[in-house]
Amino acid sequence: VDTLKHKIQGLAEKKAPQLTALRKEHGGKVLGETTVGQCIGGMRGITCMISETSLLDPMEGIRYRGRTLQDCMDQLPKAPGSKIGLPEASFWLLLTDEIPSDAEVKALNEELHKRSALPESVVKTIDSLPKDTHPMTQLSIGLLALQPTSEFGKAYRSGTLKKNEYWVYTLEDALSLVAKVPILAARIFRNVFMEGKHIPSDPSMDWAGNYAQMLGVSDDALFKDVTRMYLMLHADHEAGNVSAHTTHLVGSALSDPYYSYAAGVCGLAGPLHGLANQECLRWLKNTRQELGGKEPTVEVLTQFAKDTLASGKVIPGFGHGVLRNTDPRYVIQRQFAQDNFPNDPLVKLAEVCFQAIPPVLEATGKVKNPWPNVDALSGTCMQYFGLDQEDYYTVIFAVSRALGCTSNLVWSRMMGLPIERPKSVTLDWLSTKVK
Ligand code: FCX
């Protein structure tokens, strides 16, 4: 932890003059105009927030601290025998702007294991939930049940916490939250789908590999890799998306990371955001069932896609609020599937969708990005290894997104960002304004 603190502090000292200059010398400069359309249209494209951890390019996708996801795959330390950049190494990168050494990732994993035990009260809360409560609801309840353990909350209540120490306690909570979230998530999985038969955490394993073994759906070493890949690719996606923005907004009120991330997880549970991965697998499975053993063809899939649109539904796994190209997270998962299980029926179906669906969406004339996003394949990769409980998929997304959302909270407190309070107006106000 000391090394991590030291590195974050060092980076903040380097960035401090930049932040001061931007605030003091350029604070009055105009960044862009806001149109009436943007005001009504979900604030799309308005530059109005700082997030140091990652930046999205509409064509090339997300970069973690300037590194593309392929760079992260290539450069981040790996588990023995694996080709996947470790997600906990991306956590280090997001926090410090440095690729950690193997020894640093090992030390980070030891620290996470030390912090990973769930308090008995949290275990009881989770175990008492009805099994038909959606896993995402269970996860947000679990995160809130952990809130009393917040070091930030305790320190703030003590009345002695200074502003320049906020980030230190936020980092403490971020580390503990990241340490506990896979344990909590695996417990939810085994409670809901495996009759409450739990698999203990293995302190010799990496963060994501251990999560995979606690889920316990497959002994295949590749299942650990697919989990590592899922958790590395979903870690961060700028701060404007619903889960990251919600976490950031709630954190700006100095609510601690447990409150803030529980709120973010509730946003991730929306079908237009994180829940799209479960919707996508459902769509693929239904399509496969309706095909009734017939080989999927572009013609048939084109018709299925048109029928979905005609019934007033969106085609899950396609489109994006900001990306304007095939999501690089999709590209990396596609490569993994092609390298390891190209003949899986759902992988084959997803391949045909890749050809059939973009032209159908393009033909509507309104979809800004007809290309697949991350959710179009993440579930398909998981189901191959037997994790086909699609209601659970967004929980895996949430385990991963904890890395980005909490790193962002650390940096927001480090930079002393204030409570968020954008201006809202009424329709009458807008109408008067445009006259
Ligand atoms: N299927 C059908 N219609 C779509 C569509 C899709 N996949 N994508 C966009 N559209 C429609 C929108 O619904 C909107 O219609 P409207 O004007 O009648 O309301 C119109 O096209 C313009 O939308 P657009 O500006 O391109 O996209 P938005 O920024 O409004 O929405 C999302 C972006 C991602 C919400 C949208 O593309 C969608 O609903 N996709 C399917 C769900 C999905 O895959 N979500 C996951 C996204 C992401 F990866 C994540 O957050 O996890």
Brief synopsis:
The chain has 435 residues and is an all-alpha fold. It has a domain at 276-384: Orthogonal Bundle (Cytochrome p450-Terp, domain 2), CATH 1.10.230.10.
Textual characterization of the structure:
Belongs to the citrate synthase family. The chain has a domain at 276-384: Cytochrome P450-Terp, domain 2 (Cytochrome p450-Terp, domain 2, Orthogonal Bundle), CATH 1.10.230.10. The N and C termini lie far apart (57 Å). The protein has 435 residues and is mainly α. The radius of gyration is 22 Å and the shape is globular. The chain contains 20 helices and three strands. α7 packs antiparallel against α9 (166-193), α7 packs antiparallel against α13 (257-268) and α11 crosses α19 (393-414). The model has no long low-confidence stretch (mean pLDDT 96). The structure holds alpha-fluoro-carboxymethyldethia coenzyme a complex.
